[in-house]
Amino acid sequence: MTSIYACIDGSPAAVSVCDYAAWAAAKLSAPITLLHVLDHQAYPVNTDVSGNIGLGARDLLLDELVALDEKRNRLALEQGKLRLEAARQHIQQTDASLNITQRQRHGNLVETLSELEDDIRAAVIGRQGETSGGALSQVGSQLESIIRTLHRPVLIAPDEFHTPRSALIAFDGSDTTRKGVKLLAASPLFADLKLHLIMIGKDTADNHAQLQWAVDQLSAAGRELQTAIRPGDVVPTLHAYQADHDIDLMVMGAYGHSRLREFFVGSTTNAMLQSTTSALLLLR
Fold first, then answer.
1. Could you tell me how far CA 158 lies from the centroid of its own chain?
2. What average pLDDT does this structure show over 195-206?
3. Mean pLDDT calculated for residue range 277-283
4. What is the pLDDT at residue 244?
5. Helix ranges, the chain (H)
6. What pLDDT was estimated at residue 268?
7. What is the pTM of this model?
8. Are 168 and 196 a contacting pair, CB within 8 Å?
9. Handedness of CA 181, 254, 172, 176 (dihedral sign)
10. How confident is the model at residue 61 (pLDDT cuts 50, 70, 90)?
């Protein structure tokens, strides 16, 4: 059975990641896998420091440097285990019925999630990692790579957890968002949420027709639904609608254009990642 993967580190969002993973796992009747990855760049398995020692340095100095690196790695590994255990205990206090597994890897988080993709139903990760600067516009350095690499839903958790009661679905008629609508119609995750289906663009017959297709899909699944077409720039318009209707969860397709086009015109996904303060579910 595939799991809800919660990516655990020392960031302020770690507790929120646990809570959103527990919420999703309970709604989907899925197990949780708590994942901690010890980055191989910060904590290499084998460290070669011989090139850092000048001519005539004693072998003892080299041995001491290697021993210090080994101790540092062991401490980081133990710290990771303690974080995983603390996360497990926190989730069990919330819902003791959830099935929780702990996994610790040494490597790169993006590569690790890619290797584990067949076991992932959805991934939950903080918007900022423990090494991020903390500024609102600062997004975790690996987050974009994870979203682009992983062909699974990725839930970006803010620093504080709020139980989702409603969700805003940003719909643009693309193949990605049509797949997303079908996923939302079938998924128990949205069974009791009030859904807002929003299209950003002109109030045209074509946009109404595309929106109606999505309405038919969701209504057939018995979803409570409110729709709107709004003019304006995508990100600020979505944020304004979300604030006006007190919506807890934003749902949108991720990276629908090529990197070259995004280089020239910008990426809606990156702009949303930089500006959002609520939970954000990205679909590929």
1. 10
2. 93
3. 92
4. 96
5. 14-28, 59-94, 109-115, 143-149, 175-186, 205-220, 234-244, 259-265, 268-275
6. 82
7. 0.84
8. yes
9. negative
10. low
Q: For residue 230, what are the β-bridge partners?
A: 200
| Alpha-carbon gap, residue 51 to 40, rounded angstroms | 19
Do the strands 154-157 and 120-126 form a parallel or antiparallel pair, or are they unpaired?
A: parallel
Retrieve residue 10's tokens: 């020392």
Query: Which CA distances in Å does 146 have to 10, 113, 220?
Result: 18, 8, 33
Tell which residue, 203, 194, 211, 184, has the closest CA to residue 281.
Answer: 184
* Predicted pLDDT of residue 274: 87
Answer for the pair 237, 265: CB distance below 8 angstroms, yes or no. no
Q: Go through the domains of the chain in sequence order and give each one's CATH number.
A: 3-43+75-157 (3.40.50.620), 166-283 (3.40.50.620)
Complete DSSP assignment for 90-154: HHHHH-TTS-EEEEEEEE-HHHHHHHTGGGEEEEEEESS-TTS---TT---TTHHHHHHH--S-E
The pLDDT confidence band at residue 37, using thresholds 50, 70 and 90, is very high
For 233, the 3-state DSSP assignment is coil
The set of residues, in sequence order, having a beta carbon less than 8 Å from that of 205 and lying 6+ positions away, is: none
Residue 262: the pLDDT is 39
Q: How far apart are CA 125 and CA 112, in angstroms?
A: 14
CB-based contacts of 103, cutoff 8 Å, min separation 6: 33, 34, 35, 36
HSE-CB at 175 with a 13 A cutoff on CA atoms is: 4
Percentage of the residues of the chain whose pLDDT score is greater than 90 = 57
The residues pairing with 35 across neighbouring beta strands, listed in sequence order, are 7, 103
What's the CA gap between 1 and 153, in Å, rounded? 16
